[in-house]
Write a structure and sequence with these properties.
35% helix; globular; Nuclear Transport Factor 2, Chain: A
């Protein structure tokens, strides 16, 4: 069973993690992880593992969406090593995204992020979000086939 002190430290680490993403402080963000940081972006199947890969992921996201931030964060302690968060991810596409020019359009998508811990540090962040809704909101429907949405829709119709 997780002690109250460890639970409190983990929640403080999560708060620092979220704030470091908003502040674009990648050293602080990486400092919230235990040893080898890992992000799994479930809808795209992308896994970013290791300090360089996680930093590159964040830099690319914030180049495309520099104002990206979390709103209405809800935190649920799931078990001894897991915390589940829900939030609205909000941002504006003002930089290049997946090789395409910025559209200047904003997005808001609900996200569930599951954080695994070892001690008081994150070992993995697994992110679930509706990528199709995000690309539609920013006006980049040509990206839908790249994320498998049109193929999925066609398969459902068969």
């Amino acid at each position: 069973m997780t002690s109250e002190d460890l639970r409190r430290r983990r929640l403080e680490v999560l708060e620092a993690h979220f704030q470091s993403e908003v502040d674009h402080d990648w050293d602080e963000c990486l400092g919230t992880f235990h040893d080898v940081p890992r992000y799994e972006i479930v809808p795209t199947g992308k896994i970013h593992e290791g300090r360089d890969a996680v930093r590159a992921y964040h830099v690319g996201q914030r180049d495309a969406f520099p104002d990206q931030h979390h709103e209405h964060v809800r935190i649920h302690v799931a078990d001894d090593d897991t915390i589940v968060t829900e939030f609205d991810l909000v941002g504006t596409n003002t930089g290049p995204f997946m090789g395409l020019a910025a559209t200047g359009r904003a997005f808001r998508v609900p996200v569930v992020a599951i954080f695994s811990f070892e001690g008081d540090r994150i070992t993995n962040e697994r992110v679930y979000l509706d990528v199709a809704s995000l690309v539609r909101q920013i006006g980049r429907t040509e990206l839908l086939p790249l994320i498998g949405v049109e193929n999925f829709a066609a398969a459902e119709m068969r």
